[in-house]
Structure to design on (140 residues):
């Protein structure tokens, strides 16, 4: 992409406005590519609940407290079939998902009835930690 743009700018066939548009388009695409490359979903599970951050869209961790959950478990899911793909899905809906890749996630059902799925690459470790802190039998 860089070399054809360089050739077009140096060919002398483009006016200055076309050159500026070409350069701005290149930098816009570059910024988008860097942004996509930097997207990360980090999750931490502790005695308070599940903390997660979808960088760069969330600056701070979001926390779901154990007391606010009705159910919490890991499961296999279909990113395209259930949510229409990867990323932050289900904006404004009762069922939301944060996922980057893969098909394993932490399913959270809140006492309000809302559901949230947080993608994970370590489902076994996540389930062990959930079992340690979240006792679903006591909540029924």
């Amino acid at each position: 992409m860089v070399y054809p743009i360089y050739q077009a700018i140096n060919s002398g066939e483009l006016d200055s406005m076309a050159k500026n548009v070409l350069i701005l388009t290149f930098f816009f695409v570059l910024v988008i590519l860097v942004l996509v490359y930097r997207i990360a979903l980090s999750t931490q599970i502790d005695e308070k609940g599940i903390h997660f951050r979808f960088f760069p869209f969330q600056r701070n961790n979001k926390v779901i407290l154990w007391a606010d959950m009705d159910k919490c478990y890991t499961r296999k899911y279909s990113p395209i079939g259930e949510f229409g793909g990867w990323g932050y899905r289900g904006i404004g809906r009762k069922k939301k998902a944060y996922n980057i890749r893969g098909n394993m996630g932490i399913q959270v059902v809140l006492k309000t009835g809302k559901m949230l799925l947080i993608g994970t690459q370590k489902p076994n470790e996540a389930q062990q930690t959930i079992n340690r802190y979240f006792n679903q039998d006591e909540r029924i």
